[in-house]
Amino acid sequence: MKKYLMAVLFADKTRWQHFWVGIQTAVTFTILCTLGAMSAAEFKDEKYGGKWDWGDWVCGMIGGAIGQSVQIAVAVLLWHWMR
């Protein structure tokens, strides 16, 4: 099941780019920024004649969840270290 999910979600090269950008925006800002960035990118694709690709959006949000987790872990570690 895991191999199938990875093969379906990350079949396209641009999905890996969405994944990495999702991580970067969530670590730097929050997952809400990732939500806005992924939605804006898909909206742009749709307006320029393409279609809304839920696979790209989901890959970006998975990256955002990972990035937000990293951000929270770093904040907790710094809080414990500074205490």
Describe this protein's structure:
The chain is mainly alpha-helical and 83 residues long. It has one domain (2-82). 84% of the residues lie in helices and 0% in strands. The protein contains four helices and no strands. The protein has helices at residues 2-9, 13-28, 31-47, 54-82. The longest helix is centred in the last third of the chain and has 29 residues, at 54-82. It is flat, with a radius of gyration of 15 Å. The mean pLDDT is 90.
Residue windows where pLDDT falls under 50 for at least 5 positions: none
Discrete helix count:
4
Written as H for each helix and E for each strand, in order along the chain, the element string is: HHHH
Name the shape in a single word.
flat
Q: Tell me the strand percentage band.
A: under 5%
* N-to-C CA distance: 43 Å
Rg over alpha carbons? 15 Å
What is shown here, in short?
This protein is mostly helical and 83 residues long.
Label this structure with key terms:
mainly alpha; 83 residues; flat
Q: What is the strand and helix layout of this fold?
A:
Blueprint: H1 2-9, H2 13-28, H3 31-47, H4 54-82
Helix pairs in contact: 2-3, 2-4, 3-4
